[in-house]
Amino acid sequence: MLMQIHNKPFESTPLSKQTTAANTPSTTHIAFASFIGTAIEFYDFYIYAMAVALVIGQVFFPASDPAAQSLNAFLTFGLAFIARPVGAVVFGHFGDKIGRKTTLAASLLLMGISTLFIGLLPSYDVLGTWAPFALCILRFGQGLGLGGEWGGAALLATEHAPAGERAWFGMFPQLGPSVGFLFATLSFLGLALFLTEEQFKTWGWRLPFIASALLVAVGLYVRFKLIETPAFAKVLAQQATHPAPIKPLLKKHYRPVLLGALAMVVCYNLFYTATVFCLSYGTKTLQIPRVDFLQMLCIAVVFMALATPLSARLSDRFGRKPVLLVSSFFAVLAGFSLNPLLASGSLIYITLFLAIALFLMGATFAPMGAYLPEQFPVAVRYTGAGLAYQLGGILGASSAPYVSQVLVQQGGLTWVGYYVSAMAAVSFVAVLGMRETKQLSFDTVE
């Protein structure tokens, strides 16, 4: 049984007063380390998402049916979201038993290796049916790695945070997806500007995957210079870890896992609808040049990056629930704007929808860096926060591009908008059922 920790909470001592030891990282190092890993891993994840929208179907599936190519590509996209909860449990097990630092490095390494091998994988024309089979295995590896990344990065930031600033510190891993997506978009934009369509399809799309190996090396270097978080160090000192953290988590804390997963649905659905589905629909159905649409996404993701620190500050001041409820409510309304703005064919109106969707994604996403970890006690926090986060990905993202593609084929864009609104409503109701944790001690959240 988990021992209660009655020592003075570590968060009452600002981290700046703990940096006297030469081997203790500064707040800047901690913030950067929590940010850089998620930025790299989400870069890896997003370059695959963009490749799915643009080229994966053509490279790894038979050319006999273009529509089937797109749907099969979207299915491989969703496969990683099935793997992510598995990664959350596996890496969470070790993160809650041996520590955050080593586990985070392992998750980053797995993600990097899988991404590199996707970039090197021969096409269907070379390997035949073995090509999509190998692609699915590597995509599953990406999901496992990312499944272990977010929970550890959020804990790295929040378990070092000074009192009253957990959401602000938890914002740094939440910034990673914005920057990772921007780098991913810029990489594909550069390829579109300098390569022909044939060069891009033949070998150009592989370059961002191969380049990720260098980014992973940087991330590993930064993370190996870290020390264990104060909260988990106390658990280790008191020998209060669990042999199998998943057992007490599911026995005592299943409700915050489920509600947390449902609360995450709006973030995932907004993002992958605006990026993967809209990119595919805009370039293939609306015939918007790929360069133009990628530029539009670069503009829109800036709004996501701006919303992230703003929402984090507001949630530290007013609480996590009010910020999430307001943001989710506006996300419900945003779904109704999808059809008129996207169907207009106007680059300005489409960019407006993308900016609205990604701004609201940032607003709903930022508080989760603190809110999900706050739902769980220290000894099951890595597993609990990570599992809730990744289960939300299955519900909100894994099938979002596929479902949207089916809906637009069967009923038109209006139904895609209804789908977005419905997913936002699910998160709104879930947050209503969650407790406010802003004032709770981070050592004894029960």
CATH class: Mainly Alpha
DSSP helix fraction: over 70%
**Distance linking N and C termini:** 13 Å
Task: Name the CATH homologous superfamily.
Answer: MFS general substrate transporter like domains
- What structural class should be given to the helix and strand makeup? mainly alpha
Portion in strands: under 5%
Uncertain segments are 1-22
Radius of gyration: 21 Å
Order of helices and strands: HHHHHHHHHHHHHHHHHHH
Count of β-strands? 0
Mean pLDDT across all amino acids: 86
Summarize the structure.
With 446 residues, the chain is mainly alpha-helical. It is built from 19 helices and no strands.
Write the layout of secondary structure elements.
Layout: H1 27-60, H2 66-95, H3 100-120, H4 124-127, H5 130-158, H6 166-194, H7 197-202, H8 207-224, H9 230-237, H10 246-252, H11 254-284, H12 290-318, H13 320-335, H14 338-343, H15 347-365, H16 368-371, H17 381-398, H18 400-410, H19 413-432
Helix pairs in contact: 1-2, 1-3, 1-5, 1-6, 1-8, 1-11, 2-3, 2-5, 2-17, 2-18, 3-5, 3-8, 5-6, 5-17, 6-12, 11-12, 11-15, 11-17, 11-18, 11-19, 12-13, 12-15, 13-15, 13-19, 18-19
